[in-house]
Structure formats: C-alpha cells, structure tokens
Specification:
Layout: E1 8-12, H1 20-30, E2 34-39, H2 42-54, E3 60-62, H3 75-85, E4 91-94, H4 113-134, E5 143-149, H5 161-181, E6 186-193, H6 199-202, H7 207-217, H8 226-237, E7 247-251
Parallel strand pairs: 1-2, 1-4, 2-3, 4-5, 5-6, 6-7
This protein binds nicotinamide-adenine-dinucleotide.
C-alpha cells in the first residue's frame, strides 16, 4: 500500500508546472493521495487543468484568498463547495504568496501601507483563515496543514523586503495554530524551501545572485528543486511525521545552517 493511499488533500497555489505546489502535488499523487486543487482565477485554471488530468484529478475550485467571506471565490465558499464533494479532508498544502513586485526591490523602509497589509493578508493571514475554515472538514483521525516559507523570514535576504515580514508572521502563525489544533491531532508545519525558479520567485529582484550564492554556500552545494521539496512535503503530510508539529523544516541544501561561508565558497 502506498504511503498516502486513502488520504485526501487540497493543494492551493499551482500557477504552472514549475510551481512548488505542483512539485508537491505530483509527489503526493504518485504516492497514492487523492487531490483537489484551488486556483486564483480563470487564467490559472487554464494552466491547471492539463496538469490535473495528468494525475487523474477532477476537483478544482476557484479561490482568491484576498476575497471577503461573502464572495463566491472566497476561502469560506471554497470549503463549502469542497464539503459537497468530500466528507473529510486529511491535509492541505498552502503554497501561495503575493506582494507588489515594485516593492520586492530597493529598500524595505519605503514599503507602502497598502502593500504591507495586502502582502500580509494574502501571504500570512490566509493560512490562519484556511485553517479555521477547514476545521469542520478535517478528518476525525486528525490531519496535516502545510505552508511554504523562506529563509528571508528569519534573516534578511536581498530585496525580499515585506515578503520576509509576511513569512515571519506565517512562521509565527504555525506555532500558534499547532498549539490550538494539536488536541485534535491536526499538525501544522512550514517547509522553508531554498530558491526555486517559479513565477513568484521571478518577481523578486536580483534572483540570479541569490541562486548563485545559495548553491555555492549551502553544504549540499545545490538548490533543492521540486523533487526534494515534494519529498519533504510527503513526509510532512503523511504519518511519517506523526510526531512533528509547529516546525519549520528547511529544504535548502543546509543553507540556513551557515553563518559565515568558507572563503573558497565565495570565490
Ligand atoms: P508560483 O508563482 O508558482 O505560485 C504562487 C501562487 O500564489 C500562484 O498559484 C498564485 O495564483 C497564488 N496566489 C497569489 N495570490 C493569490 C491570491 N490572492 N489568492 C489565491 N492564490 C494566490 O510560485 P512558488 O514559488 O511556487 O510559490 C509557492 C509558495 O512557495 C509561496 O508561498 C512562496 O513564497 C513559497 N516559496 C517560494 C520559493 C521560491 O524560490 N520560488 C522559496 C521558498 C518559498
């Protein structure tokens, strides 16, 4: 029997075949999980549908996490629709974030109030809102909520700016959610990925420098990509991590563990 057979999960954040959410979805499907997807709008739906067909998944729902509960494509309405298809859900992967591209360059000190609130709402608060809305549908045996973070939550990285602040809020949220939901055996974790070439990644100015630096300084000497992130997500959504919650799990080739790089790694 496969590791995820009999498990049902929702994947949020597939933009295309390069998305971290898609890397995770593929691995989970290969290991027997039954998946449903959410997409931000029709533009994303077009790209999602052929990917879903490739893993024989049928269920998808429009959801823009910035919408009010009363709107048809809100988080709350998505769970209403999902509950008509499935009685229970075992896991959710939240792999989405947003900030105005113009503020992912230059200095954080010039961040606008509007973009600060929007970035934190979409990239951090949405996870808490999703956790709350999913509670009535989480399996009676418990479940796993997984989100995606980045090293820029812990320390500064070039041009990450308000997204670093949002990821810090997201990482703090997983600890509070883990405490709230632990008694129902719902585990809440973040996977902190190294740089991956995706649409969202390309919005951050100076990505080439970050890629090169990360792979030269990381102990493993490469930037883990979709396969490694998918494999770690398999661990965090399956029974293999039954004793793990409130944790930020780094899949970055070990980069987070380096304080001062070796001289030769900088040449
Ligand atoms: P991506 O562009 O493939 O995916 C980003 C997704 O966010 C898209 O599907 C988009 O539709 C969704 N999204 C944005 N605003 C939304 C909204 N209002 N409502 C619903 N969905 C919305 O990029 P990705 O790099 O795969 O990003 C996935 C996650 O991984 C993000 O949280 C990102 O911060 C995180 N992450 C990325 C990297 C990297 O280097 N690419 C590294 C660490 C963490």
């Amino acid at each position: 029997m496969s590791l995820m057979s009999g498990k049902k999960g929702l994947i949020m954040g597939v933009a295309n075949q390069r998305s971290i959410a898609w890397g995770i979805a593929k691995t989970l499907a290969e290991n027997g999980a039954e998946l449903a997807f959410s997409y931000q709008n029709d533009e994303f739906k077009k790209r999602l549908k052929p990917l879903m067909s490739s893993i024989k998944s049928d269920n998808s729902f429009e959801c823009d996490v910035s919408k009010e509960a009363s709107e048809f494509n809100s988080i709350e309405n998505m769970f209403e629709k999902l509950s008509k298809v499935w009685n229970e859900i075992d896991f959710i992967v939240h792999a989405l974030a947003y900030s105005d591209k113009e503020e992912l360059k230059g200095k954080y000190v010039y961040c606008s109030r509007e973009n600060f609130l929007n970035s934190l709402d979409i990239s951090a608060f949405s996870f808490t809102r999703i956790a709350k809305s999913s509670l009535p549908f989480m399996s009676s045996k418990g479940g796993s909520l997984l989100t995606l973070s980045y090293l820029g939550a812990e320390r500064t990285t070039p041009n990450y700016n308000v997204m670093g602040v949002a990821k810090s809020a997201l990482e703090a949220s997983i600890k509070y959610l883990a405490m709230d939901l632990g008694k129902d055996n719902i585990r809440v974790n973040a996977l902190s990925a190294g740089p991956v070439k995706t649409l969202a990644g390309a919005a951050i100015s100076g990505a080439r420098h970050v890629f090169r630096y990360s792979e030269s300084v990381a102990p493993l000497k490469f930037n883990p990509q979709l396969k490694e992130v998918g494999d770690a997500a398999l661990y965090l959504t399956s029974e293999l991590s039954s004793g793990v919650t409130g944790n930020v799990h780094h899949v970055d080739g070990g980069l987070h563990s380096v304080a001062i790089p070796k001289q030769e790694n900088l040449e």
